[in-house]
């Protein structure tokens, strides 16, 4: 290894160590260091030589999934003339032009404060170029392995194949040369196996998850779910996180018409399934339109959707979608067919910058019994506990048209120890006034349409 390569490896290791230490409980952090062989200056253990067993690999991936709070966006990775027909706008087929496309897109995404890119449908020959560009730009990639997702690329490797390989040793040997070049890229975070899998494929996906864990325990398998009824089966497929997509803003609706309490209930169901399996959950948030079905949400609706998920303890927010007209559904993402930004994209970038600040705090929180009463507006109230018995409250204005003046009543015994609250995002202090007659404390603040306020007591 050259001096420059070693220097880069150490820089990458130290950055990841800082991230993990900031977001993990000490016992998880120390366990991860031991499992990955980082102690003693070893950058990362080579899974081909390090004696990982299945339980150790699962432990590593579960800890890694809890070490991040991703702010991500989906990008359809189809390539012109390979896996999409004429009339659609995809990655250019010419490799030099493809490299320029990845460079422009990843740079734009990073400049909008989004640091994870989830990319389905990338043909195998384009992976190395894609990951090399992502390494340089500095975004994290969750990349679908086309051979696992689609029989036309992987034949009997694909989880969709009727004659998928059943022998796990054979499956692992066939996957090894596919995984080997991918796992060396610092930009790679996870392998997507398949998007929105039906429960009928759960056994195939679980088999692939085991093979991937043995080949590369440092990068977890990934896939978004979309069917609440199938959650009891699909949450057991071997993923290290539960990711769910459900889109609410219909084409015929107008802003203010959707009842966000319906989305809160949905998030609660996903959270409960994830918690039962000891996993974090990440929520996809609608940022697309589709003729005849969905309209592009306003930024207030996007904020409300994300904050409702966070109120139900989501540990990651993934926007869907970046690009437009990439396939037959003719989805309209946050940039148009020429990659020009729609007005909402800059607003999402501002919101993403706020989430980047709040994410490390949300990552450490766990739900707590509610001790705050409310008056004024349609406001969702959720209370949390943080490290060292710290207390937090998240307030979400479910009215996406109007600001609200909210008054919160802090009940005892918490009220006795609270003099003020601090806005985690701005640092502003909000005074909590004693209400002696009620043995409580009261505070008042304004919340913008669809917005959330995370306060530390």
How would the blueprint of this fold be written?
Elements: H1 3-23, H2 26-36, H3 54-66, E1 71-74, H4 95-111, E2 116-119, H5 127-137, E3 140-144, H6 146-149, H7 151-154, H8 168-183, E4 188-192, H9 202-215, E5 221-222, E6 224-225, H10 231-234, E7 242-244, H11 260-276, E8 281-286, H12 299-311, E9 317-320, H13 343-362, E10 366-368, E11 372-375, E12 379-385, E13 391-397, E14 404-410, E15 420-423, E16 429-431, E17 433-435, E18 440-447, E19 452-456
Parallel strand pairs: 1-2, 1-9, 2-3, 3-4, 4-5, 6-7, 7-8, 8-9
Antiparallel strand pairs: 10-12, 11-14, 12-13, 13-19, 14-18, 15-16, 15-19, 17-18
Helix pairs in contact: 2-3, 4-5, 8-9, 11-12, 12-13
Task: Give a written overview of the molecule.
The protein has helices spanning 3-23, 26-36, 54-66, 95-111, 127-137, 146-149, 151-154, 168-183, 202-215, 231-234, 260-276, 299-311, 343-362; strands spanning 71-74, 116-119, 140-144, 188-192, 221-222, 224-225, 242-244, 281-286, 317-320, 366-368, 372-375, 379-385, 391-397, 404-410, 420-423, 429-431, 433-435, 440-447, 452-456. It has three domains: 3-41; 54-363, TIM Barrel, CATH 3.20.20; 367-456, Immunoglobulin-like, CATH 2.60.40. The strands form three sheets. Strands 5-4-3-2-1-9-8-7-6 form a nine-stranded parallel beta sheet. The termini are far apart. The chain is globular. The model is unreliable at 39-51 (pLDDT under 50). It is α/β, with parallel strands linked by helices and 457 residues long.
């Amino acid at each position: 290894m050259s001096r420059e390569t070693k220097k880069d490896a150490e820089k990458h290791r130290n950055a990841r160590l800082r991230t993990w230490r900031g977001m993990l409980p000490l016992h998880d952090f120390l366990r991860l260091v031991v499992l990955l062989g980082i102690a003693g200056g070893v950058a990362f253990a080579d899974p081909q030589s390090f004696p990982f067993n299945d339980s150790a690999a699962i432990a590593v991936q579960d800890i890694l999934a809890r070490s991040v709070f991703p702010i991500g966006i989906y990008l359809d990775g189809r390539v012109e003339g390979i896996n999409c027909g004429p009339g659609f706008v995809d990655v250019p087929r010419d490799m030099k032009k493809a490299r320029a496309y990845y460079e422009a897109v990843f740079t734009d995404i990073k400049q909008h404060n989004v640091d994870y890119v989830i990319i389905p449908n990338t043909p195998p020959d384009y992976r190395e170029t894609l990951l090399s560009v992502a390494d340089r730009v500095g975004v994290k990639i969750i990349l679908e392995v086309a051979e696992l997702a689609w029989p036309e690329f992987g034949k009997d490797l694909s989880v969709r194949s009727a004659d998928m390989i059943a022998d796990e040793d054979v499956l692992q040997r066939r996957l090894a040369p596919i995984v080997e070049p991918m796992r060396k890229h610092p930009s790679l975070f996870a392998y997507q196996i398949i998007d929105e899998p039906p429960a009928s494929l759960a056994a195939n996906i679980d088999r692939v998850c085991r093979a991937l864990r043995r080949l590369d325990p440092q990068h977890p398998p990934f896939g978004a779910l979309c069917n609440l009824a199938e959650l009891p089966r699909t949450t057991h497929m071997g993923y290290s996180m539960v990711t769910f997509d459900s889109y609410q803003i219909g084409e015929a609706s107008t802003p203010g018409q959707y009842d966000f309490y319906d989305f809160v209930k949905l998030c609660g169901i996903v959270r409960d399934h994830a918690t039962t399996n000891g996993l974090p959950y990440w929520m996809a948030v609608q940022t697309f339109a589709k003729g005849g079905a969905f309209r592009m949400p306003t930024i207030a609706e996007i904020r409300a959707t994300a904050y409702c998920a966070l109120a139900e303890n989501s540990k990651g927010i993934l926007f869907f979608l970046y690009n437009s007209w990439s396939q037959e559904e003719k989805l309209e993402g946050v940039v148009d067919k020429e990659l020009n930004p729609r007005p909402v994209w800059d607003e999402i970038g501002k919101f993403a910058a706020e989430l980047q600040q709040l994410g490390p705090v949300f990552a450490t929180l766990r739900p707590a019994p509610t001790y705050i009463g409310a008056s004024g507006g349609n406001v969702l109230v959720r209370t949390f506990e943080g490290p060292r018995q710290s207390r937090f409250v998240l307030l979400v204005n479910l009215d996406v048209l109007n600001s609200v003046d909210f008054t919160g009543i802090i009940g005892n015994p918490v009220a006795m120890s609270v003099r003020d609250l601090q806005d985690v995002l701005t640092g502003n202090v909000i005074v909590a006034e004693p209400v002696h007659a009620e043995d409580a404390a009261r505070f008042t603040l304004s919340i913008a349409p669809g917005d959330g306020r995370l306060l530390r007591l």
